[in-house]
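Hello forum,

I keep getting stuck at the same step: I have a sequence, I want structure tokens, and every attempt I make locally crashes halfway through. Rather than fight my setup again tonight, could one of you with a working pipeline run this one for me? It's a single chain of 257 residues.
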Amino acid sequence: MIFDTHMHTELSFDSSEKITRILEEADLRNLGVITTEHKDLNYLEVGGFPIDFDVDEYFRRYEKYRSDTYLMGIELGLDRRYTDKIRKIQEQYDFDMVIGSMHTMDGINLSSRKYFREQDERAFYRTYIGYAKEMIQDSPFIDSLAHFDYPTRYSGFSELRYEDYEKEFSALFKTMVKEDVTLEINLKRPLVGDVYHSFRSIYKGYYENGGRYVTLASDAHVAEDIGRNFDEAIKLADDIGLDICYYKNRKRVLCDR
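Reply #2:
Ran it on my machine without issues. Output:
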């Protein structure tokens, strides 16, 4: 079974979706699912509002649904000022999977279009990819690194290509392989046009640097988006030679297709 490893319900600040609808839709689509509610401890100072949720409530409300096809995860915002706190969170609770995300960089909100108007594209991307490497080194306890293309969605910059930042990407991917952190294929955007060519370039570069595993992630905030664009992602992974996986009890499991 293929697992969708990244999605949000009403416990995340940006979703009002019910867990029961998520599970009904997953059953219809014959998908396993992992809910990964947002927890960015630094975002109040960056974005002006909390991206947080009550983890105890999460387990109280959702653990009764846990099964071979529904697993419980979390999406932790990476920030070296909060590394000790997020390390304790992922140790304290019985998560199946822990995603690491970079919604911020050195105190900057990476969804701020105003910020990007003042940035040089190539200088920003070099800094961003280098920062991702530092975050993996700082938080090697995460299972996967989410949406590498997050700032591209808001910046208006060109799509990333491995060959344009080969030195930086190579260092990042080798660090991920060393720390056994999986690279997510985030499918919030369809794999067409420049997005497809960007993803193909980057995941091929990941493979060339020793990466062998990817997770599939709809990043759904409504039930109807579960598994979106997965057919294209599966084909891309197969073409490159990457194995699709998910995590259960914090252990990598290869998807049986």
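The chain has one domain: 3-254. If your local run keeps crashing, start a new thread with the error log.
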